[in-house]
Every structure is written in C-alpha cells, then in structure tokens.
Amino acid sequence: MPIHNVFTLKRILSEDAALYKGLRVEGLDESPEAFGASYSDEVNTPLSHYSKLLTNNIVYGAYSDRGSLVGIAGLRIPKQEKLKHKATLWGMYIKPEARGNGLAKQILLQIIEIAKETTEEILLTVVVSNVSAITLYENLGFIEYGREPRALKIQDHYHDEILMRLPLT
Question: What CATH code is assigned to 8-120?
C-alpha cells in the first residue's frame, strides 16, 4: 500500500546507524542493480562502519509521519583540496511504497541545497535501466557526461551506468 503523507527530511546522525543500516541493506536486497555495494557485502557489516559513514558524509533521510525511515541519500564531499569542488551523490533509495509522490525529488533538492554551500558540482552514476531516476536527475539539471559499459556485474549479468553531473556554479 503506497504511503501518501507529508515527509520530514533531516540529516541522519551516527546515533541512528542501526536505522540507516536497516534501510540501506533493504535497498541493496530490493534493488541490487542500483548500488555498487551488495547485500552480501553489507548485511553483516558492524554498526560502527555505518556510524563512521554517517559522521564522514552528509546523509539525509525522509521520515514518514509515523517516524519510520522511508528514503535515504548521501553526499560525499572529498576533503582533498584538489577534489573538494566535486561532491558525489550516492546511496539513494526510496522504499517501494513511498515512491511516486515526489519524495525522491524532495530529498535531492535538500542535498543540492546543502551541496551549494560547500562545493561546485555533484556527480552521480545511475544504471541505464533506471529510467525513472534518470528522468528525475535530468529534470533537476543533471547532464550526462559519459557511460561506463559493464559497470556492475550481478551474478552473470552486466549493467551499464550513466555518469551524470550537476554544475552548481
């Protein structure tokens, strides 16, 4: 049953590592082609890993009016002087029942606003078959700058990825 309500967006902090891990591994299991990581890579990863990940990155979550985490997206801004002008959007996932109502766009707009304060562009990769995500990214101004054939291998099937960027300046 789809969720049709107002969502609260907020940064996920290290103390919510268990909540974050729960949704992340659900996404890895439900949509394996959408992530470079795999369910088997992360299902047994200790919470300390996620706590550190949440501390070292900007990760936003969308919470339903019941307080459950239904969407996530991360922004990695390199610390290195020569690289910090380009951030990477990663780990975007919306629970299936929370899709189709603009939530992904809400999270992305929040991430973009945060990125504008500290970096010059956002990079991302998206699997070629994820047409809805590609359309969303394009509608927000992301442009394709390349393709990586056979970027992911899941069992014996390869998935190409599109490389996209959003100039912020």
Answer: 3.40.630.30
